[in-house]
From TrEMBL:
GO molecular function per UniProt: ferredoxin-NADP+ reductase activity; nucleotide binding
Protein's name according to its UniProt entry: ferredoxin--NADP(+) reductase
Reactions performed catalytically: 2 reduced [2Fe-2S]-[ferredoxin] + NADP(+) + H(+) = 2 oxidized [2Fe-2S]-[ferredoxin] + NADPH
InterPro entries assigned to the protein according to its UniProt record, in alphabetical order: FAD-bd_FR_type, FNR_bac, FNR_nucleotide-bd, FNR_type-1, OxRdtase_FAD/NAD-bd, Riboflavin_synthase-like_b-brl
FAD-binding FR-type domain residues: 4-110
EC numbers, comma separated: 1.18.1.2
Transmembrane spans: none
GO biological process, one term: heme catabolic process
Top-rank taxon, per record: Bacteria
Keyword Metal-binding annotated: no
Length: 265
């Protein structure tokens, strides 16, 4: 291999969440690839449908997998007219997928001082980074309460929902819930479908009118809350404005903040 910027990995599992729309891919992991929960990788494929051709198309994908897990997992939407995601969705076990050697991104919990509430607000596949963060035990030790909000259009798009709901029963996480049954608050929200016990509106609307705090049973108080945003650009722009008006600010020049943002495309 002449290009030393990437490694060739092998697909070990493909899962379809919504046919022709949402899928996950698991691949092997190079032993030297280290990352922090919440970071993303540049993933490559060749332009031609030739397995051994050099990768020339590259896209950024957050790791769903935790830093301690042996493989890498990525969650993606299919962009029908796209050059990359439809090809990635057609991968099968044994096919190659190329990963750049260095991870990227700053949507990591070390952006915040420990303590208080960690709010993880996502739309669509922006959930990816938060799954990595939640699969990392360090997150559960660092904050008193974790509030995960996942905004989608329909209930079918609530990928990983069963895993999130099952976290309370995991042996590794059970002690946290014995101390506080609401250690993790999970709010799945669909804008086009009513879900039991959940408000039906855009995430930013729920921030603006206070229903998000009501549903979570916690306040978006900049003195206590740390907020991560990951999703589509329109949501990020509106949410940043709403939260900024409440006193939430990104960290700068060594000063810890209480807001971290990742534009998901």
């Amino acid at each position: 291999m002449t290009d030393t910027k990437y490694t060739r990995q092998t697909v070990t599992h493909v899962h379809t969440w919504v046919p022709d729309k949402l899928f996950s891919v698991r691949v092997t992991r190079d032993p030297s690839f280290d990352f922090k929960a919440g970071q993303f990788a540049r993933v490559g494929l060749p332009e031609a449908d030739t397995p051994d051709a050099a990768p020339t198309l590259w896209r950024a994908y957050s790791m769903v997998s935790a830093p301690h897990e042996p493989g890498l997992e990525f969650y993606s939407i299919v962009v029908p007219e796209g050059l990359f995601s439809p090809r990635m969705a057609r991968l099968q076990v044994g096919d190659p997928l190329y990963i750049e050697k260095n991870p990227f991104g700053f949507l990591t919990i070390d952006r915040f001082p420990p303590g208080g509430d960690l709010w993880l607000l996502a739309t669509g596949t922006g959930l990816s980074a938060y799954l990595s963060i939640l699969r990392d035990p360090a997150t559960w030790h660092s904050f008193e309460r974790i509030i995960l909000v996942h905004g989608v259009r329909t209930a079918a798009e609530l990928a990983y929902r069963d895993e999130i709901l099952a976290w309370q029963g995991r042996p590794g996480f059970a002690p946290f819930f014995q101390q506080d049954p609401r250690k993790l608050v999970y709010l799945p929200i669909a804008t086009r479908e009513a879900l039991p016990g959940a408000p039906q509106a855009r995430l930013t609307t729920l921030i603006a009118d206070g229903r998000l705090e009501q549903a979570a049973g916690a306040a978006l108080d900049p003195e206590r809350a740390k907020v991560m945003l990951c999703g589509n650009p329109a949501m990020l722009a509106d949410a940043r404005k709403l939260l900024g008006e409440r006193g939430f600010k990104p960290g700068r020049r060594g000063i810890p903040g209480n807001l971290a943002v990742e534009n998901y495309w």
